[in-house]
Every structure is written in C-alpha cells, then in structure tokens.
Amino acid sequence: GQQVMQIPQYQHVQEGEDFTTYCNSSTTLSNIQWYKQRPGGHPVFLIQLVKSGEVKKQKRLTFQFGEAKKNSSLHITATQTTDVGTYFCAGHGSSNTGKLIFGQGTTLQVKP
Amino acid sequence: DARVTQTPRHKVTEMGQEVTMRCQPILGHNTVFWYRQTMMQGLELLAYFRNRAPLDDSGMPKDRFSAEMPDATLATLKIQPSEPRDSAVYFCASGLVQGAFGNTIYFGEGSWLTVV
C-alpha cells in the first residue's frame, strides 16, 4: 500500500538556524499537505500543494512539491522557538478516495 | 468557531475493559477519520468514513476494534477487550472532500487512552 516517509525523525537547531524536512512517497500523489503538531496538541493544517513543481511560502516557511509528485519538502528560514513541534506531511493517492496517509513526522527542537 | 469534538479527553482503564471513544465532526463535513498516535508508530490511519459509510478500515485490528457512524454527528471507536498495547492518543478528524484535489482535515484534540 501507499507509504509516506519523512526524514529526519528529529532535528535540534540553534535559534536562527535554518531547518528542512523531506517527505517521500512510494506512489505518485494527487496532492500533499503539511501539518504542525505542538507538544501535547493535535495536528493543525498548514498548507496543501497540488501542482507538479509547486512552491508556496508562508512567511519563513517554504513548501515544495516535486516534479514527479512523489516528494516534498518544508524549509524554515531563521527558526524561532515558536517553531518547535512535529511537522507531518500527508499525501492523497492519485485516485482521490480522500484517504490521507501521514509520514512519521519530523520533530523540531529549537535552542534559544 | 467550528471544531471536531472528542470525548473522553483522557481515559485510564484496566486491561480487558471496553473503551468507547466518541467524535462529533464539523457540521457539513462528509469524511471522518480515526487515527492512532504513538511514539513508535506515528499517526496510523485506523478507519475512515465517507457520508457515514466505511471506506477503509484496513489499519484497524478487527478482532478488538470497531468503528461506526450511527449518524452524521457522531462517530465512535470501540475497543473490546482493551490491552496495554492499545495505550495511545486517538484522534478523530473530519474534512469535506470536493473535486479531485483532496481535502483539508481538521483534528480533534484527541482521546488519551491508558490501559493498565
């Protein structure tokens, strides 16, 4: 079945450093979504990418969808302590049944 | 402010007991998901429904777990009998599937289950 893999599993950075998490799917995706979960909280939707090669920005966050629609990345510029949490990518398969499969997540720690 | 509501928020139960978790999806959403989150397995999809009909429950241990949607405002996840390995956070999420581009889903705050 469809699998979504994320690396790294954990990342510790100094405040002000950049951070990137990568997401890879075993199958072509119709779209990919990113969620953030704060410690003790629940996943919250950040963004959805649909088009091949698409790049979207939200302030210091840059999201990319690969040309083959099988991989994606999230890059945070100049991390802040408020960026702490776990970032998940989640993919819909090419036959959109609504089934959303999550990657394992990347947990980001930011040292002030 | 529309949100997904889950009960109970926290549950401690003894092994062998029945556990029922409830979810009220956002009004108007046609898709409901149950996910389980553990440190080891991340977010696992257990089951999901479209317009109250079960679409996929392949991620759910069938011998002890069951998921239903008795009506559009209520989804339930039952574990009978519960085991210590079922200890996890169980999230319900709902979304509105439109067109071919998937749907944003909104998570409830989770039910934190501990089986001792």
Give descriptors for this structure.
heterodimer; A: about 110 residues; mainly beta; 11 strands; about 0% helix; about 55% strand; B: about 120 residues; 7-stranded mixed sheet; 4-stranded antiparallel sheet
Furnish the topology, listing elements before pairings.
The complex is a heterodimer of chains A (112) and B (116).
Chain A: E1 4-7, E2 10-14, E3 19-25, E4 29-37, E5 44-49, E6 55-58, E7 61-65, E8 71-76, E9 85-93, E10 100-102, E11 106-111
Parallel strand pairs in A: 2-11
Antiparallel strand pairs in A: 1-3, 3-8, 4-5, 4-9, 6-7, 7-8, 9-10, 9-11
Chain B: E1 5-7, E2 10-13, E3 19-24, E4 31-38, E5 42-50, E6 53-56, E7 65-71, E8 74-79, E9 88-95, E10 105-107, E11 111-115
Parallel strand pairs in B: 2-11
Antiparallel strand pairs in B: 1-3, 3-8, 4-5, 4-9, 5-6, 7-8, 9-10, 9-11
Short description:
Helix content of chain A is 0%, strand content 57%. Chain A contains no helices and eleven strands.
| Sequence of secondary-structure elements of chain A | EEEEEEEEEEE
Question: SS-based structural class of chain B?
Answer: mainly beta
The secondary-structure class of chain A comes to mainly beta
β content of chain A, as a range?
over 45%
Helix content of chain B: under 10%
What this model shows, in words?
The complex is a heterodimer of chains A (112) and B (116). Helices cover 0% and strands 57% of the residues of chain A. With 112 residues, chain A is mainly beta. In chain A, strands 2, 4, 5, 9, 10 and 11 form a six-stranded mixed β-sheet that branches. In chain A, a hairpin with a 6-residue loop joins β9 and β10. Chain A starts with a strand and ends with a strand. The model of chain A has no long low-confidence stretch (mean pLDDT 93). Chain B is an all-beta fold. Chain B is 0% helix and 54% strand. Chain B contains no helices and eleven strands. Chain B has strands at 5-7, 10-13, 19-24, 31-38, 42-50, 53-56, 65-71, 74-79, 88-95, 105-107, 111-115. In chain B, the strands form two sheets. In chain B, strands 2, 4, 5, 6, 9, 10 and 11 form a seven-stranded mixed β-sheet that branches. The mean pLDDT of chain B is 92. The chains are: A mainly beta (112), B mainly beta (116). Chains A and B meet through β4, β5 and β10 of A and β4, β5, β9 and β10 of B.
